[in-house]
User: Which sequence fits this backbone?
């Protein structure tokens, strides 16, 4: 289970800044996973240390990342009945896109064999474009404006989780952007009813866990990522990590220009 909320610049106070530049794009993401799955938090890595991302040490990929030239990608799993096992990790879809700075999102998508992966929702972007692709939707979608929410169904699916997140984020847009408040938004809708949570995970069904932030002793939100860039090409990333029962761990902050 994961959740991604992203918005292009509009006329709301959220995108205004005190200096001359303005936020062009803001993305917030919660990564939900079992606490015992080995993970490295966000850092620069790769042969040229040009990829900024966390690392899934079990599957080998990542859930979100950005390069020094401004390419970025994020992924969520598609909630569905598991009828077969897949060898290739969905996290590789993010990583492989970031590894090649020269490949466009369109060319990358055209060479992906979507049948090699379990159900996924993938966001590919740079400063000029954002594309949504899923192997559970019939075509890629070019996105240029508006607020979008991606959970564990197709983009902007009207589930209770998505509808509540949209309502709450629209309230957040009424105020100037603050990193702290943006991250708090992603952990403000919580559930600690562990018995219900575990039963939901055990059932092989399509329903989402209807909370933005999940906490228990075995499974929950492992990190919140805040990603943005402004009109002057400044990229800012904050990663807040969590452990069991939603207890805060380290926070990592990065800022660079493209």
Assistant:
């Amino acid at each position: 289970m994961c959740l991604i909320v992203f918005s292009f610049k509009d006329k709301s106070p959220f995108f205004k800044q005190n200096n001359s530049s303005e936020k062009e794009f803001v993305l917030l993401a919660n990564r939900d996973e079992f606490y015992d799955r080995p993970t490295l938090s966000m850092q620069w890595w790769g042969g040229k240390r040009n990829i900024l991302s966390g690392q899934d040490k079990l599957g080998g990929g990542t859930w979100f990342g950005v390069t020094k030239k401004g390419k970025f990608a994020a992924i969520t799993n598609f909630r569905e009945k598991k009828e077969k096992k897949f060898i290739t990790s969905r996290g590789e879809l993010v990583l492989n896109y970031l590894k090649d700075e020269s490949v466009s999102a369109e060319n990358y998508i055209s060479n992906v064999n979507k049948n090699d992966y379990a159900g996924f929702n993938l966001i590919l972007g740079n400063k000029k474009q954002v594309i949504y692709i899923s192997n559970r939707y019939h075509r890629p979608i070019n996105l240029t404006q508006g607020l979008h929410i991606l959970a564990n169904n197709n983009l902007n699916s009207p589930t209770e989780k998505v509808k509540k997140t949209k309502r709450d984020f629209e309230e957040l847009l009424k105020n100037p952007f603050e990193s702290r408040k943006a991250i708090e938004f992603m952990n403000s809708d919580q559930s600690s009813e562990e018995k219900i949570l575990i039963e939901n995970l055990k059932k092989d069904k399509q329903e989402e866990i209807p909370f933005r932030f999940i906490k228990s002793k075995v499974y929950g939100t492992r990190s919140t990522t805040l990603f943005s860039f402004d009109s002057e090409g400044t990229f800012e990333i904050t990663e807040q990590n969590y452990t069991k029962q939603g207890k805060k761990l380290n926070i990592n902050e990065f800022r660079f220009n493209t």
